[in-house]
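Checklist before submission:
- one chain only
- standard amino acids only
- sequence pasted in full

Submission:
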Amino acid sequence: SAEEIERNIVELLRRLAIAGNGERRDLLPQLAQAYGLYGRFDDALRILKEVHDRDPDDPAIQRRLGLALMRTGEWHRGMELYDAGRWRLAQLDAVFRPFPQPTWCGQPIAGKRLLLWAEQGIGDQIMQVRALSAILAQGAEITLEADPRIFPLVRRTHPEIACVPQTTQPAPELMAGAFDFQGSLLSAWRWMPECLETKQHVPYLEPDRLLSARFADAWRRFGWPLNVGLSWQS
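Returned file contents:
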């Protein structure tokens, strides 16, 4: 509850007032998290910047500060910090895909074979494929490893992309594939400025228009002019 979060903030501030340098290092990230839960994002960002200045190589702080910066609209710096920190955290080991090919870090990709793997839930993956158009425009040949439920969306928009279902263990043909680079589809946003320009709302997926019309007609017959799409992870 809000009251409990406020009590935690007061207690953390009290402990910080009497803490030594070592304890402050542990308490400040906790205070930033409490401020974030309370909706005081500017206070959370200020504290995370202070902690990062003291220990700029701490991966947990890099990730948290990156998220806080993206919340305020500083997408480029936020994404850079978020991505630099998260892959060094054990809690992300389950998300990371252990492909042996070189990681794409923004190198030129014209004429290159690129293996991209989507991550997290299906809603996140639908968001991440926003990068595909920009990557194709740079001349790359893309193989996408993702949840197969998004393949119809991807194939309607980009039939030239090879889609491979994402399984617990990566497919052997991908592990042994002659790709020039591999990488997370979300991490690819760092190298695609178009993805981080939030003021430009450009459609990036082609819906199934016949299916959309069928559902729209069904809602109209019920008298419900609903125009909402839902995506969730079970």
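Reviewer check: The chain has a mean pLDDT of 88.
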